């Protein structure tokens, strides 16, 4: 990717290649089997993983598990108050689309047969939104999911930790013809092209959501944005690994799954 295709300096001092500061605070909730407060800069999402000893009707008797997600913006997570979905009597389209993305992404991380007939719910509540909330939800939701799987293994409900791969996501885009990664809200609102990329720990793509919001984009520009996404997801997975602090016994339990 040519250097002149990427922003050399952004409003917050980052280059086009740079992520915002990312952090994971595990165990944020004392009740959930797994939980994580994830921060992408000013964007903060509380992700919890809750285990239910049952599966949806279409999986009953299949000996397979399920991972699903819900997503919501808290009322004052943005510059103006967002009404709760319950006050409207239905889930809004954006929340529905994002929670389906999170569910699809995290199902790619788990061996459903080894999970057995149980469901893990990933609830993603946006406490503060400054762009990239769906990427943060996927990335932090993965950390909460892994802790829930570790919990099930530790208490003897799983013979191994049924983790297939790490999973993380990032937003990339184009502004004034320049490419950049991990868009904050101001950048996202001005972007000609906005793309969300979900990948696993082996560099394989799980999902790409790319939209020409205000302009078209070329094949070369798409490849450039994917290059940025690959680089950023690699960084995110290193941070996930550090946050999760797997010991040797847990690594063996994953390998035996």
TrEMBL record:
Residue ranges of every copy of the Exoribonuclease phosphorolytic domain listed in the record: 19-148, 166-231
Q: Which keywords, in A-to-Z order, does the entry hold?
A: Nucleotidyltransferase, RNA-binding, rRNA processing, Transferase, tRNA processing, tRNA-binding
User: What EC identifiers does the entry list?
Assistant: 2.7.7.56
Query: Which InterPro entries does the entry link to?
Result: ExoRNase_PH_dom1, ExoRNase_PH_dom2, ExoRNase_PH_dom2_sf, PNPase/RNase_PH_dom_sf, Ribosomal_Su5_D2-typ_SF, RNase_PH, RNase_PH_bac-type, RNase_PH_CS
Residues that, per the record, bind phosphate: 94, 132-134
Say which enzyme class the record assigns: transferase
Q: Which reaction does it catalyse?
A: tRNA(n+1) + phosphate = tRNA(n) + a ribonucleoside 5'-diphosphate
Question: Where would one find coiled-coil regions in this protein?
Answer: none
Molecular function GO terms recorded? 3'-5'-RNA exonuclease activity; tRNA binding; tRNA nucleotidyltransferase activity
| A single BP term in Gene Ontology | rRNA 3'-end processing
Where on the tree of life does the source sit, at the highest rank? Bacteria
Which family does the UniProt entry place this protein in? Belongs to the RNase PH family.
State whether it acts alone or in a complex, and with which partners, per the record: Homohexameric ring arranged as a trimer of dimers.
Role: Phosphorolytic 3'-5' exoribonuclease that plays an important role in tRNA 3'-end maturation. Removes nucleotide residues following the 3'-CCA terminus of tRNAs; can also add nucleotides to the ends of RNA molecules by using nucleoside diphosphates as substrates, but this may not be physiologically important. Probably plays a role in initiation of 16S rRNA degradation (leading to ribosome degradation) during starvation.
What's the protein here called? Answer: Ribonuclease PH
Which species is the source of this protein?
Answer: Dethiosulfovibrio peptidovorans DSM 11002
Q: Name the gene that codes for it.
A: rph
């Amino acid at each position: 990717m040519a250097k002149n295709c990427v922003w050399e300096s952004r409003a917050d001092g980052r280059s086009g290649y740079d992520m915002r500061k990312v952090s994971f605070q595990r165990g944020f909730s004392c009740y959930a089997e797994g939980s994580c407060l994830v921060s992408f800069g000013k964007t903060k999402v509380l992700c919890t993983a809750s285990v239910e000893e049952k599966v949806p009707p279409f999986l009953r008797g299949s000996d397979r598990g399920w991972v699903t997600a819900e997503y919501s913006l808290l009322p004052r997570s943005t510059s103006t108050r967002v009404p709760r979905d319950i006050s409207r009597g239905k889930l809004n389209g954006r929340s529905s689309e994002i929670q389906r993305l999170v569910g699809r992404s995290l199902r790619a991380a788990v061996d459903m047969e080894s999970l057995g007939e149980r469901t893990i719910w990933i609830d993603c509540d946006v406490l503060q939104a400054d762009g990239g909330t769906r990427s943060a939800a996927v990335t932090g939701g993965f950390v909460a999911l892994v802790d829930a799987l570790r919990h099930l293994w530790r208490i003897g409900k799983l013979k191994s930790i049924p983790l297939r791969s790490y999973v993380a996501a990032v937003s990339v885009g184009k502004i004034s013809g320049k490419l950049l990664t991990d868009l904050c809200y101001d950048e996202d609102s001005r972007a000609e092209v906005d793309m969300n990329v979900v990948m696993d720990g082996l560099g394989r793509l799980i999902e790409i959501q790319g939209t020409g919001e205000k302009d078209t984009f070329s094949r070369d520009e798409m490849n450039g944005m994917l290059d940025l996404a690959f680089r950023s997801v690699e960084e995110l997975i290193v941070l996930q690994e550090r946050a999760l602090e797997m010991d040797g016994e847990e690594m063996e339990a994953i390998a035996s799954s």
